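Weekly sync, protein design subgroup
Attendees: M.S., D.O., the rotation student, P.L. (late)

Item 1: inverse folding check
M.S. brought a backbone from last month's batch and wanted to see whether the design step gives back something sensible before we order anything. D.O. pointed out we never logged the input encoding, so this time it goes straight into the notes. Structure tokens as presented (284 positions):
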């Protein structure tokens, strides 16, 4: 996955810096699964309701905890590092086309002793959560998607202009301005940690650009527990309005929708309180 050990160390250094910046007490748990060792960060109130987090592609647990870190006062949070991505889990790739992600997620929860919990899937993590409710629906008491993949994909022309062309130009000519144009489409300009991480990955990680397969109604027809969703109105990858329309067709049990206004795919810091408030409302 990494083009050199130096690149790997740079990525993991950013991971550690982000985790330290959260100023929370936590425990690292390494879970052995049939898909490889899986790192889980456990944090929060031992007496609180359980939350399991699945992060966006190559983002890692610290980035995922940051927008909801105030919830550690009330909830017990398990943030799972996805196997096969730039995290502290094994680098073993997982097949995106079958139900391997569902099997892996279920195995992690079983090893952690979590019979049932609130599950939150962010971006690519929403696809993992979709696979889990397909495979083991009873594990998920409340299913919450944030800027979710797996429902729709971005429109062709905007994606071509803001993502594909700048990325191709960067790959050909290695100019930072093209990389900056690409990142500006989905990363808040003040998110220096994520911008730095993306630049390192573009230069030194063998990235897999395959998007998750779109969810089918028959896959989740048997899931009856509540589903909630937070979308962003300026999401280039998974447009908010289209995601809402598709979710309404897929889930008869869709009980809550919230739209982050003036927000790209990666939520900016000004939305964190808004996200936390909505999650607390739904989970309580």
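Designed sequence read out in the meeting:
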């Amino acid at each position: 996955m990494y083009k050199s050990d130096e690149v790997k160390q740079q990525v993991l250094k950013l991971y550690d810096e982000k985790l330290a910046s959260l100023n929370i007490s936590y425990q690292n748990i390494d879970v052995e699964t049939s898909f490889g060792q899986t790192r889980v960060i456990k944090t929060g109130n031992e007496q609180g309701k359980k939350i399991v987090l699945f992060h966006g592609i190559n983002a890692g647990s610290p980035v995922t905890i940051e927008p909801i870190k105030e919830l550690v006062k009330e909830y017990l949070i398990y943030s799972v590092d996805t196997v096969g991505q730039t995290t502290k889990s094994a680098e073993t790739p997982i097949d995106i086309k079958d139900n391997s992600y569902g099997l892996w997620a279920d195995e992690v929860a079983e090893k952690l002793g979590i019979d049932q919990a609130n599950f939150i899937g962010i971006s690519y993590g929403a696809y993992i959560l979709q696979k889990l409710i397909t495979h083991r629906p009873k594990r998920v008491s409340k299913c919450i998607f944030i800027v979710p993949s797996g429902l729709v994909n971005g429109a062709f022309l905007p994606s071509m202009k803001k993502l594909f062309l700048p990325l191709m130009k960067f790959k050909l000519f290695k100019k930072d301005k093209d990389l900056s144009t690409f990142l500006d489409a989905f990363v808040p300009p003040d998110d220096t940690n994520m911008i730095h991480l993306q630049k390192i990955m573009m230069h030194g990680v063998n990235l897999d650009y395959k998007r998750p397969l779109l969810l089918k109604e028959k896959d989740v027809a048997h899931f009856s527990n509540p589903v909630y969703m937070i979308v962003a109105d300026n999401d280039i990858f998974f447009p908010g309005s289209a995601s809402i329309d598709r979710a309404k067709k897929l889930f008869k049990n869709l009980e809550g929708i919230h739209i982050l206004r003036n927000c790209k795919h990666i939520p900016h810091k000004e939305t964190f309180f808004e996200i936390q408030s909505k999650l607390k409302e739904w989970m309580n």
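Discussion: The radius of gyration is 18 Å. The domain at 22-155+209-283 is CATH 3.40.50.1820 (Rossmann fold).
Action: P.L. to compare against the previous round before Friday.
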